[in-house]
Amino acid sequence: MATYLEFIQQNEERDGVRFSWNVWPSSRLEATRMVVPLACLLTPLKERPDLPPVQYEPVLCSRPTCKAVLNPLCQVDYRAKLWACNFCFQRNQFPPAYGGISEVNQPAELMPQFSTIEYVIQEDDLQALKESLQMSLSLLPPDALVGLITFGRMVQVHELSCEGISKSYVFRGTKDLTAKQIQDMLGLTKPAMPMQQARPAQPQEHPFASSRFLQPVHKIDMNLTDLLGELQRDPWPVTQGKRPLRSTGVALSIAVGLLEGTFPNTGARIMLFTGGPPTQGPGMVVGDELKIPIRSWHDIEKDNARFMKKATKHYEMLANRTAANGHCIDIYACALDQTGLLEMKCCANLTGGYMVMGDSFNTSLFKQTFQRIFTKDFNGDFRMAFGATLDVKTSRELKIAGAIGPCVSLNVKGPCVSENELGVGGTSQWKICGLDPTSTLGIYFEVVNQHNTPIPQGGRGAIQFVTHYQHSSTQRRIRVTTIARNWADVQSQLRHIEAAFDQEAAAVLMARLGVFRAESEEGPDVLRWLDRQLIRLCQKFGQYNKEDPTSFRLSDSFSLYPQFMFHLRRSPFLQVFNNSPDESSYYRHHFARQDLTQSLIMIQPILYSYSFHGPPEPVLLDSSSILADRILLMDTFFQIVIYLGETIAQWRKAGYQDMPEYENFKHLLQAPLDDAQEILQARFPMPRYINTEHGGSQARFLLSKVNPSQTHNNLYAWGQETGAPILTDDVSLQVFMDHLKKLAVSSAC
Amino acid sequence: MAELYVKPGNKERGWNDPPQFSYGLQTQAGGPRRSLLTKRVAAPQDGSPRVPASETSPGPPPMGPPPPSSKAPRSPPVGSGPASGVEPTSFPVESEAVMEDVLRPLEQALEDCRGHTRVCDDISRRLALLQEQWAGGKLSIPVKKRMALLVQELSSHRWDAADDIHRSLMVDHVTEVSQWMVGVKRLIAEKRSLFSEEAANEEKSAATAEKNHTIPGFQQAS
Question: Is the ipTM, as predicted for this complex, more than 0.85?
Fold first, then answer.
């Protein structure tokens, strides 16, 4: 540069900065003698049409008192991937995304010409959700109709059919509207046309009014992709100490009303994506003051949950309307705190919709669970069906007491309907608006034969299940299943009846009854009921001498049943302590619809052991199964836990798996990982994955599930130090069984 | 063709976030899988704790090395891939996909469709975005590779295969591709419908031509 004039001008253009002195006096004394202070004029937002913002977040110095941003003046070691802050001289590691940088491949912020650079701060979670929604457009069939409603403080129904400009109808989030009002405001009802005498009636060209809001994927995927990409956080500022305003109740109401007015009785899903609790309008679950936390079980017990009843009523009303229209509501709730699943659960439970709960939309748990909704079967059809009605008929010796599962009653009375209700009763028909190949209902019957009526020789009772539904290919289908079972006289054929007992099905059916009761009864009452049923069962079917507990035996077909009940009592379905109301609702939602195998896993988790002593084998869900030279794989349905025993962990730390002569150890470590992967690849919803070892903090997931046969109370009672003691005061299976036997053999009961 | 890999989950945002499976692995899983681990053990009826076969001796655990490979009691399990911490690309080293090889056929396809659909400008805009991102080095190697495969399938009129690749890219690399992939998707759909239209027209004209020649002895209607 010939003169400083050029230098000054270039710097102003690039950095928006003009200094009084461009060479700085090196001492304080000298600087004061220069009269004009060392100062600059800064234009922070100087226009730089040639400087596009970079789409990532700035890299900061890791020293908490510094936090300077990586810049061209920093020294960089490209090989070690380290940089030295030029302000505090801290050496910092580059984040993993910078793994590919080199002298010839520098990130923009290190290049001298980028002394001024602008970063775009992405809304991490919202960005992840937007991408998942854009991705889903590729997974939907091209002729599926889609619509978009966004909500925050206001609720916006987006018009999809317009080219160029994006338009939307905006509703206030505080005011609930009836279905008719919503349909009128969205222009979905034809206005009355004044008749004109002279003219012949012109055929009115009404474009299908709903097409403004609901369009086929193949037509609007590009527009919708852009629209989703442009979504931003609610522009209304959220003041310190407040929650953002979220009008979930009104948004859902509008969605239900929109579909009600446009496509009643056609398969449809309303998918609700929410990142926090409803804080405004009907259906609000908590106020906007952060200092008032959302209700806990303790609050509910003390009747201190202000908004709960009203909010639940709002969502129940919506859920019932939706089910009547044949649509289903899914809830995808991702947030670190509760989002109001307790109040909103009826939306998913009554309509057969899904409930997914995660920490953030930017997690594999949400992303993959959401992808799995669109999985196809071997025929290339989606594995979801809509608008099902289940009709149950029985032979005259039986009546229907009710059903428990993702359904609503159709209130169909008839000769098959019992007056004694178990679950959703008083009907022989139910509606399941959304279902998939694993959806399972529990259906309860009553035998109405009089006690002394003789049974015809070889007589059989029969039940017919008729399910009408809309297949994902839009074809309507009817599946009919007719079954029959032999009658038997209990007095003379008790052993026969015993042998035909399915303890697994019985456990799940009784568990569903228990969880159903838990929704309306006090927790301890439900446990007492469950215990009473178990004692009576043991009294009836156990072999024992009166008053002699040690003589008590159960036949093989009952041998697992008491264990199931023991674990059920400890399960999160009946023990709400240690879970939030939302978590309990989430667990119960999945329990009430899974098939037998998965439901059993939820009641009593599976535990498999891997060791050098033989092939992988199931082991007792007991603390005695936790041994130093074993790897355990536990599946609770909601979590997959891999636990390395103490010795295994030490061997792994020592690196034996990397030595060729110990290749079998490498295989041993890999075996549970492979089995876990098989489960993870297929399960809906995606479970959490915990890989831990002896002494690890995450080991608590295993320790809390196993039967605590050895606790700090009885460690030395058994005489052998096998297994790991659990620090708990919970009763163990042995103590439970002892009590059970005592009560079963006692003539007092 | 689609990649088969497993990435670890996002531990920063979700506690115990499960690993992420690629689209290829997920679609491979296919129909409902019978859970292989479903057996349980009954608790002993007499109430004593079950003494497991591998009882460790009382006292400090032996910290010797594990039993060496020679006496491996079980054959190594066949896993479908490591369950943690593996980088995505698992392909052998090949020459990188060339941008022109991908963009030229796409633009050709666009030209073929011009006049048949109103959205050509929109698609064209997105192809330009694809080109910009590719040239700017913003796309990862797996994405470029799969785009080259997609274009091959498109040129060979294998619409379903091309569609499947587009889906796999949207699922596995949504952050990189979401802005322009929907244009490619639309292009595949337009080419497909154009092709079947042409095929139908050809069939019609072939049928008419045949009709005029089938019956000997009859005068052709003039």
Answer: no
- Look at residue B35 in the predicted model and tell me its pLDDT: 56
Yes or no, beta carbons of A363 and B13 under 8 Å apart:
yes
Among A335-344, A552-561, A686-695, B107-116, the minimum mean pLDDT is found in: B107-116
Distance from CA of B25 to the nearest CA of A (A): 8
pLDDT attached to residue A493:
87
Residues of B in contact with A710 (CB under 8 A): 49
pLDDT tens digits for range B78-120: 333 334 433 444 444 456 778 888 888 898 888 888 877 778 8
Please tell me which of the candidates A620, A627, A679 has its beta carbon nearest to residue B41.
Answer: A620
- Residue A249: CB atoms within 10 A of its CB come to 28
**Closest-CA distance of chain B to residue A554, Å:** 8
pLDDT over 50 at A207, yes or no = no
**Nearest beta carbon to residue B31 from set A229, A377, A674:** A377
Q: CA of B36 to nearest chain A CA: how many angstroms apart?
A: 8
Q: Which H or E run includes A151?
A: strand A149-151
CB-based contact B54 A665, cutoff 8 Å? no
Taking CA atoms, what residue in B is nearest to A668? Answer: B76
pLDDT at position B112: 85
Looking at residue A710, its pLDDT comes to: 66
Domains and CATH numbers, chain A: 4-56+113-119+381-489 (2.60.40.1670), 132-188+210-373 (3.40.50.410), 572-737 (3.40.20.10)
Residue type (1 letter), A685: P
Q: What's the CA gap between A718 and A736, in Å, rounded?
A: 17
